[in-house]
Amino acid sequence: MTISKSNFIVISTVMITILLLFQFSNISANYVSKSMYNQNAEEHVSISSTQILDREVLELPENYNTAIIGSPRNQEANIAEEWCIYTKRTYQRFMNLREFIANPSSYCTMIILNSISVCTKKDVDILYHQSKLGINIILTSLPNTTFIRSSEKFKRLIGIRGVYQATYRISGMTLYDGFLLGGKTTYKKLEKSVPYFRLRSGTKTYITGYIKRQKELNIKNEDLPPLLWRNQTEDSFVFVVNCDFFQDHTGLGMLSAMLSEAMPYNIYPIVNAQNVVCQNFPYLSNENSEKTAEHYYYTSKALCENVLWPDMVSILNATEEKFSGMIAPKLEYSNKEHNVSTDSISFYFDQNEKISGDLGLSGDQMENLARYEDKIKYDTEAMAKLAPHYKFTVFSPGNMPEFIYKHYLGEKGQDSILSSIRTLITKKGLDTNPIISFYDNKILQMTTTIDGFSHKDVEDLYLKSIETALGYSSIYLDFTRAIYPTKRGDDWTRLSNNLSRYLSTYWRTFRKGFDQVTVSESDKKARRFLALDYYSQREKDSIQLNIVNIKENASFLLCLNDEKVVSVKGAEYIEMERGKYVINTSSDKVLIEVAADAVK
Amino acid sequence: MTMEVRTILELIQMFTVYSLCVLLFPYIVFYHYLKEKSLAEKFIICVIIGNFYIMNVVFAMFLLHIPSRPMIYIISVGPAVFAWRQINQPPIKRFFVVLYTGLSRLFLGEAKIRTIAALLLHRPKKAIGNIIRGILSHIAHHFIEWVLLTGLFAFNIWYYSYQAINNYAYGTSDIIVHHYWINQMSDGNIFCAGIYPFGFHNVLYFIHTFFNIPVFSIMRVFGTVQAIYIYLMIYVLLRKICRSRYMPFLGVLIFTLPNLFSILANMRYQWAIPQEYAMLFLYPCAYFLIQFFERKKLEIQTEAEWKKKKKLYAWLEQYHILPSTRSLAFFAMSFAMTLAVHFYITIIAILLCLAIAVAYLPIVLKPRYFWSIALAGILSLVSAVAPLGMAFLQGTPLEGSLRWALSVMTPGSSGETIEEAPDDNSTEQTGELVENTENEVSSDEIPSYGEDSSEIQPSEDTSALTKIKTFLTDKGKAILFSMKSVCGNIKTKFLRFNETIINYLCNGFNRLELSKAIVWTMEGLIAFALLIIIIRRKFYYRNLLSVGIYMLLLILMACAEPLHLPAPMELERAIIFLAYATPLLVACAADAIYAIICRPFRYHRFTEILPIGLTCTLTFLTVKYDYVKPLSIVYAIQSRGEVTCNYEIMENYPEKTWTIVTTTNSIQIIIDKGWHMEICNFLNGMEDYTTDSKVTIPTKHVFFYIEKLPLAYGAFAPVNTPLANTGSISKENAEKPASFSGGNVYSLENRNALESRMYYWAQAFQKKYPQEFQVYYEDESFICYHIVQNEYSLFNFAIDYGYNK
User: Fold this and answer.
1) What pTM value is reported for the model?
2) Which of A13, A286, B99, B654 is the most buried if burial means most Cβ atoms within 10 Å?
3) CB contact under 8 A, A599 and B796
4) Closest CA to A543 of A598, A599, A581
């Protein structure tokens, strides 16, 4: 069979046209690409520290809403103060209860205090009196059992029949449904030593100890060691924490949950942001290739581009998380052999644009402390040369000490790569730092909440609590573990398996209601969260929410007791769990209609 | 959905389901036998077969110890299908041949599926069309009858469902016991409280299991359904007896509309209880016995004719079973069912049969009649007693009420005589009065022959003829006096008897005039029927006589005490049967008059204007003079709120995840779905409160039922007024010492004390758990609280609520 000339021409033309059409889309994409520009880089920040409701605004010597008893060095009181700032509650701090009595507020509805503040019978009398006035009391820790045994009044106040054992070793704990977001969870590997109390009737337990040999010891569920409970006095609630939850931010969400339990409804602002921070990824150099080749049969560059990147994209796609990569241009700055690869830059920046990710800068390097200064200088030069138009706005110092990077941040940094930074992502660890706060006037500091490659019981409880308080989580993935493997657990196959597993299970509840965003988007949400103020009132089945201070959208968590949201005007709502709703406002006035909802 | 709407829907559902079971299914199975019969006969046969089948299927299943839902489907549907196949011989083979051919053609592409479907559905479609046409044609031809029936039954449905629709709860405590027994059957345990006639329970259990309808839904509305069927039986029997087609409506009307009887006579029909259910089978006994006499007579005549023609074999060839034997079989079934459902109805059925037997003397004594009836009686007894006997042999003891019933029926023993004490005295006084009057009358009125004879002195001068004449005159006079004295005596005794029963029947009928009228009608009917039977030995008059004698026997039974006769049952129950027989008596009496008046017109159709006019006039007068019977009464068993909550909770909460804390009565209703805790146990758990007191309930949901107006348990009130109560709960009542156990724990003051305490407990508990302890339902007399518990850490409900130290 022969093909005629005319047919040949037609076929060839069609083929060329198709080829051109396909290539055109690619060429045009490259042509309009803005991958080498940071879309989030703005001249001015939307909200600076001067616009937010911070300690200066909310701490009122008179007419305060919440009394926090505890010295400035007291961690439990600091957590309570941080919670007041997040929930926009006016508060006042007192050294002790006598000081509080001397400065009463007619608006006070809650006292938050800890074991140190209750040490005399006089203190108990004050608390007893305050409870009769209808003021809710939160005891973030309990005084020693000798004191409790001696004071019948205190026992009555906190709702215990007696001290069963002064110290009891529990193998874990059970967090009951309806208190923190995430539902009922039993933590079997969370050993603690706590006093063992027996509760009176009229109490409600939210967290109890888990005893492995419960059946053998013939302990009924109701008689398990209570760790967090509520007692109802004649006119108010007394919440009692019999564990060290308030030694870190785990107590933050518990305070919100307690408030929700004490009120017919509770609405409070949240950040509504879930992000994943990939520390030291993308990695732009090719160091440690011998080891990676030994471990993975890949050079480090190839490993990152051909293994880590596709894996990460598929995991994040599957869980609908957004990518926030903290670029590590190099990890060994003494090594002059391997420099930043231009190919890598264009590859990652292009790929990042395709998945609408966010790129920031990592502060890590694998050498000694002295190299951090070199790193900043090298990074500044290298990136100015290879990606001159890209302004870095996110910086994750990682292990870099603050005293090093603080000189380069903002205007002080002059031409440094860190001078344009607006968001500082700090690693979880220092519990004295707030979760979200302003580092300086323009830079917002956010702390990561959990290591994405691990999920221990204590981390899960922490995560649930922060999600309840702020609707915020920041998953920290340190890729130096994969590029510089030191033990079996650092193998990427294991790490990626764990990451995939954890993301698809533990975050499922939160993903339902909270937004998956990049770090830059989280920054914007967090700024709005810190700046906004609100007030709400309820008339019958209508809750009116008014938002002040910001014009942009905001997010709230609404907690109802045996009620459900029927309709919302001025906002959208998502039911996270029974009686827990995320309200995403689109107007400064929101009207929420609720109705009775029977538990089935 | 409101409870009212729900109840109406349940009523419709129940009516449909029961009618399917006892009307439609038997009709389909016995279509071949029934197709030629009248609608009334079809109805009565289907009801008897349907009920008899269901009762015995359930008995068989339980006595074989294989009770389960699949089994009930197998052993009820299987034999029915077999019987249907045998009786109607449907062309099943042909159906499958057509199906096979059709499918073959379908696969071969020779026909479309529509063609094959049309071919297969041709006969069923035709049958359905015929049925619809038949119904419409029947309504068109009997339009007035249908209108009258519809009107009467609409009133009865309204009247007897009023309590269920408006008060929601069971109207009497008996129902709870029967509900418990049916629940026990669901657990595979028949005769749970000992051997008892379980026919009623079998039928309800069958409906519950077969159609998956909750027992409480059945029990709440089944009373109305059975009442309608009971009323229909009056109509059907009167259609059998009366000459006039429309006279039965008068009978039904008498029992429906006017306020003739005491409240005791009607009130029980609104409830689903066995005695009333058994009444459904009372009149069918009479129906089939009368039918037996008619058919037997005809058969004997026909047999004689064919014998004469020497073609008896040809006549016998056309029957497997002779029609009279069939009637007797149905009679046996009906009689057996009275025994299988309630023994009291058997007593009445015996009286009814006795009345018919007396009326059919001497026919009944003829061997061909007598032995057939005797055999039927024995078979019916055996079929009714056999399941009970088998259970007894399997080791089940007798139920307590059977002994009680026997003790009531035994003369000289007392069943429930406490309430009757005043009546006894009055009866005794009346008795004495009767005796005194009798003495007085006898001394006043009985002529003395001696005195008369002393007045007539024979003369010595009279001739022999005169002597004879005088002798004869004297003797004649003496006989005359003697006869006169006997007649006078009889008359006096009769009048006294009349007076006694009329006075005593005032307990059952609303007015003295009414009881007089009933007694005189009865006597008149008996006298008339006897007189006519002497002249014309027609079965019609024998039937009238049967009704008269039946009424007489019932009156004698009701008036057993003043007449010093053995009383098989107490007056309260006898009144029910007396009232139920009254429409028969009145309709038969009226029909007798109709028969006399309209005979010259050969009962032409236009003569029916008399009964129609009579019925309409009576209705008009009843309404005009406001003599319509008032609404019935209801016992305070459960509040409306409690029933509403039971329904809501059962529908909306998962099974066995909830507990209700309440008095005893809801336990049987919710037992399959949830848990129950007694208020007395709940409160007792925290009595003498210390911090160590503990009351926990291990379910996620707990509901607390509290009566704000505690019911006066067992007290009755008119159905359209609030339930009888013991007054509002109060602190004073809560302070009173309360009993937490014993038979009267929920009676009167103690109930109020417990409910008051419960209320103040709830108030105190709500203070402790304001978010969790919510009001679930509240009305003016009832409140229900709801709490959701963490099943892993239960609430301790024991608190100091101020009245438990």
Assistant:
1) 0.81
2) A286
3) no
4) A581
